[in-house]
Write a structure and sequence with these properties.
Blueprint: E1 2-4, H1 12-18, H2 22-29, E2 33-39, E3 42-53, E4 56-64, H3 73-87, E5 92-98, H4 102-111, E6 114-119, H5 122-126, E7 131-133, E8 136-138, E9 141-147
């Protein structure tokens, strides 16, 4: 079940799985909407979305507990975030991930996100420690966008 989370309920262990910088999370989470996936009071996943313009939102953090991965929770959280943003007037939703995050890039594209830009050396500039995933040094932020189609009845 997906639920809105309040600041006292934020799952820092999960948030830090997706973003190893507590400082960066604290910066973006203060203006965010935080949704969690709970099963019998056990929080298994989280997604953080923030408004970035009148009709644009950004997914800043998406994490599923290691024991719950591979069960579709990440997809469910992403779809809930898209729905939430849509109901708040979003026309596009942005998400970013590292060049080395192969599984995340696959998931986002399967849902309908499209690659839009690369922020070269983002992780080198913003993180003190080197990040390595899938045997690849994480250096660049790949930014993807999901466009919400609008239809006009004629």
């Amino acid at each position: 079940m997906i639920t809105n989370l309040e600041p006292l309920d934020y799952p820092w262990d999960l948030l830090l799985l997706a973003d190893p910088s507590r400082q960066l999370i604290q910066h973006y989470i203060k203006d965010a909407l935080v949704l969690g996936w709970k099963d019998a009071d056990l929080l298994m996943g989280v997604v953080v979305v923030t408004p970035i313009a009148s009709n644009s939102w950004e997914i800043k953090n998406l994490a599923v507990s290691p024991a719950s991965q591979g069960k579709g929770l990440g997809t469910a959280l992403l779809l809930a975030a898209i729905d939430t943003c849509r109901t708040r007037g979003a026309r596009e939703i942005w998400i970013g991930t590292g060049n080395s995050s192969i599984g995340q890039l696959r998931l986002y594209q399967k849902i309908g996100f499209r690659m839009r830009e690369i922020d070269f050396d983002f992780f080198v500039r913003n993180y003190d420690e080197e990040i390595v995933e899938n045997g690849i040094r994480c250096r660049d932020m790949i930014r993807l966008v999901y466009t919400i189609e609008t239809s006009v009845d004629t």
